[in-house]
Amino acid sequence: MVNNKETSMVASLLAVMAVVLSFLSTAQAAAKVPTVIVVGAGMSGLSAAKTLSDAGIKNILILEATDRIGGRIHKTNFAGLSVEMGANWVEGVGGSEMNPIWEMVNKIKLKTFFSDYDNVSANTYKQVGGLYAESVAQHQLDSLDDVVEFSENLSTLLTAKKQEDISVLTAQRLKNRVPSTPLEMAIDYYNYDYEFAEPPRVTSLQNTAPLPTFANFGEDLYFVGDSRGYESVVHYVAKQFLTTNKAGQITDPRLLLNKAVVQITHSPSGVIVKTEDGSVYRAEYVMLSPSIGVLQSTLIDFKPDLPPWKILAMYQFDMAVYTKIFLKFPYKFWPTGNGTEFFLYAHEKRGYYTIWQQLEREYPGANVLLVTVTDDESKRIEQQPDSDTKAEVMGVLRAMFGKNIPEATDILVPRWWSNRFYKGTFSNWPIGVSRFEFDQIRVISFPCNC
Description:
- Pfam families: Amino_oxidase.
- Residues 1-29 form the signal peptide.
- By secondary structure, the protein is of the alpha/beta class.
- It folds into two domains: 6-73 and 229-318 and 431-442, FAD/NAD(P)-binding domain; 116-213 and 320-412, Polyamine Oxidase, Chain A, domain 2, CATH 3.90.660.10.
- 34% of the residues lie in helices and 20% in strands.
- It has 14 helices and 21 strands.
- It has helices spanning 6-29, 43-54, 100-107, 134-160, 168-174, 182-191, 193-196, 212-217, 232-238, 292-296, 308-316, 375-382, 386-401, 435-442; strands spanning 36-39, 60-63, 75-78, 81-84, 89-93, 112-114, 124-125, 220-224, 255-256, 261-267, 270-275, 280-283, 285-288, 301-303, 318-320, 322-328, 342-345, 355-358, 368-374, 410-412, 426-428.
- The strands form six sheets. Strands 7-17-18-19-16-20 form a six-stranded mixed beta sheet, with helices on both faces. Strands 9-2-1-13 form a four-stranded parallel beta sheet, with helices on one face.
- Strand 10 (261-267) and strand 11 form a beta hairpin.
- Helix 11 crosses helix 14 (435-442).
- The longest helix is centred in the first third of the chain and has 27 residues, at 134-160.
- It starts with 5 loop residues before the first helix and ends in an 8-residue tail after the last helix.
């Protein structure tokens, strides 16, 4: 029910790196001068580099396109507050198995807050104003729970019988529970789009029901609200193998910032990596950790082209967009206290500023709201001026709380989709894409024209 898959995607990327690295560790042990270039200094790239280092492969070079490490885990200053532009939650806590991200969060004592969604039914607003009766909204939530249980059972059955994948929407149709009213769409959006950043019609049933992160690590979610930022976890990983100065800043010459890779030439003799500033780097191997959105773009030119089977696998996955819009007000006009953390707005247009979160616990007295949009709404909003977005948001808030509420004094609209170094926030597993295609992306691509 939260975004970002942030932690679930990081967990997947760590698994990807582990498989690839096991091959590299063996292959390069026999080399006289083992050299690996790692493209990208986000969580996956740095985790890969650390695994190489731990295996004794120290002669590595990390090329990062931006002026910082962390990738889509990134804090910024908003109205005097440190807020997360991208990843914000630790998903999958409270189970029998420890989430590795949660373990690191605890080690560095990041301040987190349990996200309580239990009272959404009491905080769902109509498009024309006023709250839905709690019993009415709860009925829709209960109906959704039935669909979720049906979908998970169906997914298990299809997998066991090795049947073709279907969409989450198809499962809803089979249960005769396709949302159509504003309330039904808001509840449905809250459960699916808010988690996957794409609607049920394009989301794989077999790969998301149940969601492995929750099944493996637990169903609790924690919001990171620490002035050091969620990116502290990335720095924690980096500092385990990169040298730092007395102030704790990374000074290791093996990490180069502002090095946007634009061309990779690969041959049996190794690889040549060119960056946008004209620099050229040579190595025996290159490991890529950019987002699937970047790999699908024209930013990096491969010479020769990657094998068709790998290109096909890469292009089958979706790079979803999840946008957290922060708003600052002169004073609070929304409910606060227990049971009011999240509230929904049910509009006739699915996903129109549907999910709201008041951040009084995280930022006491700051008078800050967070509203989340996804997919096409994210792309639409990224392309318009912030003033237009602010006007739309104020229209929604006035529908919920009346015309006399104050104007927002500040607004922050992240633009991950428009950024050529990210092209979105996290990948979603589409219909019909199997584990085989996933493995095709992560498998070693030997230099060839096949």
